[in-house]
Design a protein that fits this description.
The complex is a heterodimer. Chain A has 10 helices and no strands. By secondary structure, chain A is mostly helical. In chain A, helix 4 crosses helix 5 and helix 9 crosses helix 10. By secondary structure, chain B is mainly α. Chain B has 3 helices and no strands. The longest helix of chain B is centred in the middle third of the chain and has 44 residues. Chain B is rod-shaped, with a radius of gyration of 36 Å. The termini of chain B are far apart. In chain B, 15% of the residues are buried. The chains are: A mainly alpha, B mainly alpha. The interface between A and B is large, with 53 and 35 residues.
């Protein structure tokens, strides 16, 4: 009941803002993006731009699990995590008009999620300093094979370890080595040049090494 | 073990962690409505002030128009010689 009322309200908001943008030009289905988009997403994006709140709700339902996985890398706090996931979809709605439809909606959403997460890290960067990162157990944990490690403990340790780095370094390390993305992909997600990604990666590695050494962890 | 191996190892183990389930559909919809209203609120103020400013102008315009088009004045003008 409440949900349908909200969807109705959103529909009216959508109607109040016609032309929030266009999907490959005019949103009439004749755009070049239609051929490359998965059918449901393309249709729902087009309907959302035309003022259909239900269509946007369907997009959220389809993609929120994937976004939740991504945003879990930015915080270990469940409340903040939920807020971040929601913020991604709010930002996506507000810039839906800029979606050109030349690639999958998921990729476009990933860029927004990366930006939202990075902004969150930057906002909270002042609260964390290298000295505050307790990494005592890391040596013990590192001696275990990856498949035998407790996932929760490993994730917690990883998060604490990265917290000691500036947001840019954290971001590039997560994208390059945790998500295993290429330089080109990282550049596309962050909006940086490929050269900048390479330089940033090199710097981030050096800082991580220093951080581990400072915590008493033996690294080669 | 170097820093990258350690990072990858932890990342690999962390990937098996279950991510909290979230449903943000309703929250997103509500937030979108709220932000949209927030965006439109300043425009509503401008529209209100403009409307308030327009009221005396319209009243004055009606008075001036009525004076110009007063039927008695027109009749007097037609037959000439009289003026109020």
């Amino acid at each position: 009941m409440v949900e349908s009322a909200l969807v109705h309200m959103v529909s009216s908001v959508f109607e109040m803002t016609p032309g929030t943008g266009t999907l490959t030009g005019n949103g009439d289905g004749s755009g070049r993006g239609d051929a490359t988009l998965p059918g449901h997403d393309a249709m729902d994006v087009r309907r959302s731009l035309q003022g259909d709140g239900d269509a946007y709700a369907a997009l959220i339902e389809r993609h929120q699990a994937g976004v939740a996985v991504r945003m879990w890398r930015f915080t270990r706090d469940r409340t903040l995590h939920r807020e971040l996931v929601q913020e991604v979809f709010v930002q996506a709605y507000l810039s839906l008009g800029t979606y050109k439809g030349t690639g999958p909606f998921e990729h476009w959403l990933s860029r927004i999620a990366t930006r939202v997460g990075y902004r969150f890290w930057r906002k909270n960067a002042a609260e964390v300093s290298m000295k505050q990162v307790p990494l005592e157990e890391i040596d013990q944990l590192a001696s275990e094979p990856a498949h035998e490690m407790s996932p929760d403990l490993a994730a917690d340790m990883l998060h604490r370890m990265l917290e000691g780095l500036p947001p840019r370094d954290r971001l590039v390390l997560v994208l390059r080595y945790i998500e295993d993305r290429s330089v080109k992909e990282v550049a596309a997600l962050t909006g940086w040049t490929q050269t900048m990604v390479k330089v940033q990666t090199w710097r981030a590695r050096k800082k991580l090494k220093r951080l581990l050494e400072a915590a008493g962890v033996e690294v080669d | 073990m170097n820093e990258l191996e350690l990072l990858r190892k932890l990342g690999c183990a962390a990937a098996r962690e279950s991510v909290p389930h979230v449903d943000v559909t309703r929250g997103t919809m509500a937030e979108v409505v709220e932000r949209q209203i927030g965006v439109e609120r300043p425009f509503a103020w401008i529209a209100g002030l403009a409307a308030a400013g327009a009221v005396p102008v319209v009243i004055l315009a009606i008075h001036v128009w009525n004076d110009w088009t007063d039927p008695l004045l027109l009749i007097f003008d037609t037959f000439g010689g009289f003026s109020l």
